[in-house]
Amino acid sequence: MDRRLSRRTIMTGAAATAALGMTGCLQNPDPSGGGGGGGGEKYTPGDTPGNGSVSILGAFGGQEQEAFMASLEKFEADAKITINYTPDKDFTNTIQQRAGAGDAPDIALFPQPGGMFDLAGKGLITPIDAFLDYDALNSTLIPGFLDSARFEGRVYGAPMRMACKSLIWYPKKAYEKGGYSAEPATMQELTTITEKIKADGIAPWSDGWDDGQATGWVGTDWIEEFMLRVHGPVVYDDWTKHRIPFNAKEVVEVFDIVGELLKGKGNVLGGTDAIINTPFSEAPLPLFEDPTKAMLVRQGNFVTGFFPEDIQANMDDEVGVYAMPTWEGGFDGQPILGGGDLASLFTLNDDTVKVMEFLTSDAFGGEWAAAGGWLSPHRTFDQSLYSDSITRQVAEIASGAAVFRYDGSDLMPTAVGGGSFWTGMVQWLQGTKTSQEVCDEIEAGWPK
Fold first, then answer.
1. What secondary structure does DSSP assign to 367-381, as a single string?
2. Does the keyword Transport apply (predicted)?
3. What's the whole-model pTM score?
4. In order of start, what are the domains of the chain with their CATH numbers?
């Protein structure tokens, strides 16, 4: 990446921080005003008794379901509430169909905000300020998390787990032997490190975008990461919500910056052809070959499940991780890009509120943390409950973030976030279209 880009004229950190502070004031404390959701009156405990049973619909099953239910056992016994959880691989469509037919579960766990916004707009979801202590909840969460669930001024879901994407992984032994810093303060400093790696005859980065019909989503993450770092969360929100066009100069600029990294000679193992043809799950493998073929891979916390089995068995000794650094001259703070399951309430009564209070608190998830594969969205969660030091490192990175933002493509209309953005990234990486051309085409196809 060219260090000359570090002094571009962009929103200053102070201005971005001030504007970000304004977004925190958008929550409407008056349940009768604003938004499109249901639950028009403030909930009062005792007014609407439950029947001792609460139904929950979510997208995850298998071992995740087992860990989820284990995390609820003590609560169920203490509260004398039976929780009936139903996993559905087609959750996105099922929740729309059931809610539209008047057969919604009491609580739904949305893996992306889009479907939740659709149902909130139809008045089918109760905004959380009607039954939760919004300020108390917001005070324990990673900053900005609740903004991901905001629709027309009110928040309709609260996170019960998170995914952290802004992570850079490296093979600890080879990386330390090479003497490379594991604490770059900025992306410009990381560029200096990658130049040293290249000088040592090793590719700095490994990357893979192949995922069948979903090929290209990894590329959208790169753009989102840099939009947050270069231009800050306010511009990021304007972009994902289409308050600025997809082909705004800020977006085109970020495409060009990312292009210097991914398309730069010798920066990525195998070049752009390898990126397109390598399954995203195989991108980390060259880091752990002997000798090491690449030193860095940028991917979310889930990527550890694709490491070689012998590496997974000894991750604390074999794997290193640090946060994707900030951009010098960009947003003044460490942003984190990620996702999470958002709990939303369809049925308002004493039992469902108790379950929502627990699910969305920092007391939930201890058993899931011990089982692995889960992160709490709360800064106040007891991190000693995580099963390994790598997970604790990731939790510390997320907890220390200045701001959290949801994956941008998940916030955009499906035709863009799961369509033209993906295909546009492939065309751009292959060089068949320029940054401006790709952004222009995505903007032209944005649903009216």
1. HHHHHSS-B-SBTTS
2. yes
3. 0.87
4. 3-12+165-334+409-444 (3.40.190.10), 52-164+338-406 (3.40.190.10)
